[in-house]
Design a protein that fits this description.
Length: about 210
Amino acid sequence: MPLRVSPNFSSMKLILNIFLIALLSHLSSAHAEAYASVDSFLRGISSEAQARCPNLRKLSERFEVEGKAAEAESTRQAVKNMCECMPAQVQVAFSTLPPSELNSKVSETNFLKRFKPQIIDKCAAEQFKATFSDGCPERMAKISSNSKGYCTCWTRELEELSDTDIADMGIAAADYIPRAAEAKKKGLPSPEQAPLMKRFFAIDALCKSK
């Protein structure tokens, strides 16, 4: 009998939460100008990531005080993403690119095509995968009665996806969540799911069956 894949907004938000907000906000608003040097774009990523750190750390501490373990862990992973991983990857780019490339002018679209996989996608994927590593069974106990199997299953399934697929899955979910929640509130059918959103629900349903 095939698995019935249906949206579970509480588990979806629990799994994705801060990851989606940080990633989508970064991609949509990081650089307002159409063209800039590669150096400027890289510095923009690093400075924006660092600017988010104080609020993310405060949010993590607040979740800890409130006893919200899953949310606290997700926020801690967001801190690692924005405050450690992304600045480190930017520094790798600075240290390996020749001055001619750093000073070259590019569009934001071309910059993201060139650097999104190695900076944004890599860090986003690491953050998302960390959700299902140490401490996952305790965090996911509200989602699955067999949370250990659920976490192991997600870890295995994510290994089949590229960093870019994982990051793009997050973007698809950030777009889908508010539209689906609004449709549910109005008693309307759920909106059409993007392919990666369908993949997310399929993995989630599969892992909950373990």
